[in-house]
Design goal:
- The protein has a seven-stranded parallel β-sheet with strand order 3-2-1-4-5-6-7, with helices on both faces.
- It is globular and about 50 Å long.
- The protein is of the alpha/beta class.
- The protein contains seven helices and seven strands; from the N terminus they run βαβαβαβαβααβαβ.
- Helix 4 packs parallel to helix 6.
- The protein has helices at residues 22-33, 45-57, 72-85, 111-137, 154-159, 170-190, 218-229, and strands at 13-16, 37-42, 61-66, 91-94, 143-147, 196-200, 240-241.
- It has one domain (13-241): NAD(P)-binding Rossmann-like Domain (Rossmann fold).
Amino acid sequence: MTATEPALPAGTVALVTGANKGIGYQTARKLAARGATVLVGARDAERGAAAVTDLAAGGGDVRLCVLDVTDQASVTAAADRIARDFGKLDILVNNAGVLVDQGVPVLEVTADQLRRTYETNVFGVVAVTSALAPLLAKSGRGRVVNLSSSLGSLSVNAAEPERLAPYQLLAYNSSKSALNALTLMYANALKDAGVKVNSAEPGYVATDLNGHAGFGTAEEGAEVVVRLATLDQDGPTASFQSATAQLPW
């Protein structure tokens, strides 16, 4: 922990979905380093346990939370556990995501590929956020960060259509546009409870999602996520931010 990374308030509890690898893993690591109790959300118990072992070796309170965001029973069980063990949730990072239409031309993307993408990237966020909203409201300083992408920015894509040429991802891109809409709606619905909800653009970083083709590292991608997850009371809500700028919807 550095001078620019102050300790979080005692008793801070965070849940990061899809945290057994990539940006989610690095987000969990950074939050634990600042003193949060971090629940590592993972669909696969074995992979999740391995990630927790690695993270715990670096210090901090890191715990496994077996969670499949596409399974309502799993989501409900996770919410019940957090309520039972902590009584509230301070930070929710909706990081879990899939990319199923890589390399598929727009006109060849199927409805099934769209459904599979939205099941995790959109419906999963709804299931998790709705289940945990009451616990976030009890925090007094609740923060929600949705992992988005500038590929979902309608303004950017309309102004620079040529940038879509190498990224013809009908399912993925539109899912991130939908996720940004969720961010605005949840921010408005939760503002009276003091919960701030923002979208994060981690940048094109190397992860399993893109076959490690990104330019940056997962650790670098996690920086904006952690910043938005640890905003003070004067911080923004209903915003879409990268590491260096506020992005247009």
